[in-house]
Design goal:
Layout: H1 2-16, H2 21-36, H3 48-117
Helix pairs in contact: 1-2
């Protein structure tokens, strides 16, 4: 294992020697760190800008959830509205039919009264 690591390190150094010196030094360090398995973790300490950005991201997620809920409600409302729109012509027709029957009733009552008087 160490032999392979040493061989790969030497090959990296030799390969990097063909590059310019400043690029080679940076690349060699990076390649050696990767070959050895050294990891690097960088983080920024919390400050006002970071916390505001985090709050904005959280608020954005909440708003997206609310928009999704509103879209769902609108879809349900549209389904209800479409079923009511299908029912509306039948209700109007039924209303006219009942109105016609009431008028017919008044006419027949009027005719019966006039016949019974005469």
């Amino acid at each position: 294992m160490w032999g392979a690591l040493l061989l790969s390190s030497v090959l990296i150094i030799v390969g990097a020697s063909f590059l310019s010196e400043s690029i080679a030094v940076g690349n060699v360090r990076m390649y050696l760190a990767q070959a050895i398995g050294i990891g690097m973790n960088v983080s920024v300490l919390p400050n006002e800008t970071n916390t505001i950005a985090l709050q904005l991201e959280q608020k954005d997620l909440r708003l997206k959830e609310q928009v999704a809920q509103l879209n769902e409600r609108e879809r349900v409302f549209e389904v209800q509205q479409s079923s009511e729109q299908k029912l509306a012509p039948w209700l109007i027709l039924g209303g006219f039919l009942l109105f016609g029957l009431v008028l017919l009733n008044f006419y027949l009552d009027f005719r019966r009264r006039t016949k019974s008087i005469a």
